[in-house]
Amino acid sequence: MKMPLDQIDLAIVENLQKNARLSNKELAHRVQLSPSSCLERVRRLITAGVFRGFHAEVAPEALGLTLQAMITVRLQRHSRRQVIAFRAHLLTLPEVMAVYHVGGSSDFFVHVAVRDSNHLRDLALDSFTTRPEVGQMETHFVFEFTRSMTLPIPSEGSR
């Protein structure tokens, strides 16, 4: 899906990715539209898939999840069936924060949040190494995690 975005659309995207809690009235003021026109544009951007969703980012520590790790996984065979099955399995695990299907020496990077090292060990043994798709697994502790919540907005000449 490639929807052409004009300068007003880009201004809406820029403002909402910085603060998704802006009221429609405030957003309309910032992008110099009437509130009704602004709301219609936001709805169009949502329908077109420009916005994937609006959500609250929760601090894992607030939920007692004090340890994060990246688990790299190499599949036994890199077949479509195994990739789809393993990805579907990962998305059922409550500890999984993000799944990346990648190229290179690993097939997946899996970002997890757990209570402690025992929880991480149990997750690895019960949910990764028992899977028939998994050929090799490695765990890397995350010392610090910071997410950028903004993407670069293209300028007029770069689109």
Q: Assign the structural class, choosing from mainly alpha, mainly beta, alpha/beta, alpha+beta, or little secondary structure.
A: alpha+beta
First-to-last CA distance: 15 Å
Low-pLDDT runs: none
CATH superfamily of the largest domain: Lrp/AsnC effector binding domain/regulation of amino acid metabolism (RAM) domain
Q: Indicate the multimeric state.
A: single chain
Number of helices in the DSSP assignment: 5
Mean pLDDT: 93
Tell me how many strands there are.
Answer: 4
**Total domains, how many?**
2
CATH architecture of the largest domain: 2-Layer Sandwich
CATH fold group of the largest domain: Alpha-Beta Plaits
Any overview of this molecule?
The protein is α+β, with helices and mostly antiparallel strands and 159 residues long. The chain has two domains: 49 residues, Arc Repressor Mutant, subunit A; 83 residues, Alpha-Beta Plaits. Helix content is 35%, strand content 19%. It contains five helices and four strands; from the N terminus they run αααβαββαβ. A four-stranded antiparallel sheet has the order 2-3-1-4. Strand 2 and strand 3 form a beta hairpin. The longest helix has 13 residues.
